[in-house]
């Protein structure tokens, strides 16, 4: 395959030049960027305060953290803390309440879905230490310089959507705990401010926060199990549904749980670029997959349990009709004052989930334009928080509709993107090294023609198989029972055509 790669040599390394914080890489490895006085002031402030001012610039080996014995434990705890959240409990509710699954069916489908999605997160996380680049900068080596910008835009929408969902959920909990005296928008603003503070200071404070936040979150969720668990209905129900309907509902819930996890894949390496390049990929994969799997399995099972107990608990019926956040607060109701305190502490989960999505969206904004890296990431982070806070205040009455449509829709493009990443790394460039210093030079990166054409096929598959309230594709209509196959057809169509398209591109273009 060597003759395919004339002009594109990912294994050839280029010496880095410029200031120690690598602002010379902001335009390309060949065109140094003049450093403004404002950027120098930001760099000085960063060194004095500990705030992370670095944006999408590559972290070179000499800037990485030293190897530490607790590296893999910190990776595990980061994903554990980030995923012990109320929005994942809400996903679990849909197993029995929307798809009519009993405890056993929902537990098996939900657990398998989040484990598979978590494995995708664990794999993409490994590219952070390997490259020193953020996730969607790494995928410039797979999709090309320009197509990766489209993925950045899509991921910004995904992360802002998560931020909005978490803020709404936090606002609903505070409204319920206060007995209606504190308006939902007030709770939304509280969650937003806490998120802004940590996300603006950077990944270092975030990693410190997640090292300990999981303890409180585990305790609160354990109290929820003790308080609400007696009302869970874990017996198998005898239903009159047809086998086709049962199979469709199982697949739909499995897909929803998979989507709730895999939506983190385009951001998963962002938090590990400071780890040393000697970090073992297989151990990192296991640590990341295990941390997210454990957290999402626990929260999804809690959601399933709450949904199975609604019919036998009048208080839960009223709460579920009011809002998903009200149901979470109602699960502590038999603990009275202490239960209200636990519901408030549950907001830590919303903050933990909001921090990484806010941080990554700021990085993605810098990747959109040529001059994006010149805009300080903390300023972009502030802008994002304002945007999704306003959206949350406007749309706080529609959390159910947002959750039902948001996760599947975002998963369509992510699985197509993931298929391209897997095939490029494991089939096209298998065994080759990458020159990570050319991350911002479009002339040294793939053109992305094959990836773009494959994405078109992936979108076609998603449209043909999707089944949402606003549109049902022809393949989904042809099924004997409603089932959303958009995610699976998007992945399958992309995976089938990408490898041959890419080989042709290498033959003709050479990179």
Automatic annotation (TrEMBL):
Record bears the keyword Phosphoprotein: yes
InterPro entries: Pur-cyt_permease, Pur-cyt_permease_Fcy2/21/22
Matching Pfam families: Transp_cyt_pur
Cellular compartments per GO CC: fungal-type vacuole membrane; plasma membrane
Keywords, in A-Z order: Membrane, Phosphoprotein, Transmembrane, Transmembrane helix, Transport
Subcellular location: Membrane
Membrane topology, record value: Multi-pass membrane protein
Name under which the protein is recorded: Permease for cytosine/purines, uracil, thiamine, allantoin-domain-containing protein
UniProt organism field: Aspergillus coremiiformis
